[in-house]
Amino acid sequence: MASHSLRCVTCGAVQPPAAVPSTCPACGDLRGTLDVVLDLPAGGLRPSDLGTPGEGIFRLSALLPLPPGAPRTPLRIGDTPLYDAPRIAARLGVAAALVKDDGRNPSASMKDRATAVALAHAASIGCATVAAASTGNAASSLATIAASMGIRAVIFVPRTAPAPKVSQMLLAGATVVMVDGTYDQAFDLCASAVRRFGWYSRNTATNPFLAEGKKTCAIEIAEALGWSGPDVIAVGVGDGCVFGAQHKAFTDLSAAGLVRSVPRLVGVQAVGADPLARAFEAGAGAPEPMVPSTFADSISVGIPRDQVKALRAARATGGALIAVTDDRIREAMRLLAADLGVFAEPAGAAGLAGLLDLSARGGLRPSDRVVAVVSGHGLKDTAGAMSAATGSPLHVSPDDSALAALETLPR
Ligand SMILES: Cc1ncc(COP(=O)(O)O)c(C=O)c1O
Ligand SMILES: [Zn+2]
Q: Is the Cβ–Cβ distance between 15 and 34 less than 8 Å?
């Protein structure tokens, strides 16, 4: 494990290592999110310091800010498959396309990486109750991993959270507070409750340990590619924490001497919920809040809480924050399912949707090796999946007349 300090992303002030995660008091919650700065060995790290691929993210403890002996979930987190997708590469006009299937985590989204690290931290400082606001996935992840560790979870979700995600939370025994409002309102309510009741906060962005968990996705990608490449990583963006964390992975890997180049990072929003893409396009330092509207519920965010790190990730890597239509996301869901066999929820397909848009406007190079991160599983939102499906079932009677109907099918 690596010892660490916490530094404000805006003013650079080093914060005392608070027991309960928080932000820089001078810069506030939105602008004063904290970077975890790892104290790495002077000689850097070797690949063998990162354990054996397949054992899950805690094998990466040399790059994680956890105290020795911090309690861990027994669930296997991370080390998800990275699939070669030649038909998608041909469609994009690039040398190689890879798909990181992070829907293969215990609660079926990449949020488990973050929750596992945050709950190890919470348990190491003796917190018994952890709270989070969420569009749905962070909440079902918190419920799942808290259950595995005997920690109480209190969850704030908007009433629009898809039923499969809510069923995960209830079955895992979490207290679910359904807020009659937007995710952004649920977030503010949860933040007030955390302050009043002293719970440990798993709220995105304001807990710097979450990005430390999410960065393990890009570490696994770089490792799988022999520490060289890819050229582009694309992922869906709501609050921007997942996206900023992929940048943090390469910051740490560069500091550890494990990589020499950093991919262009492409963060993908939906056009109805694209404050970060607009700010990027305008060269602005901060996004304008908006009332979000997209069928991709996990990225339906109007006030991006990890805005500083997200804009930094796009700008520092020569990447971009872009917005795609809901129909483009549906197209990406169909491609992932039909050309690869990977079932993605809408936000999980947003990364590939962004690559499709970039390809259409000449934003990818023929030599590029690109990675689309599928950040959530399709069964998380079956209504969203049905809205992307083009075919419909053949309806037949359970008798011989069905065989006649099947005559026209290919043999
Ligand atoms: C499946 C999925 N993809 C992408 C995201 C975007 O993550 P962030 O809000 O950190 O930008 C989320 C967040 O809930 C998610 O659940
Ligand atoms: Zn500050």
A: yes
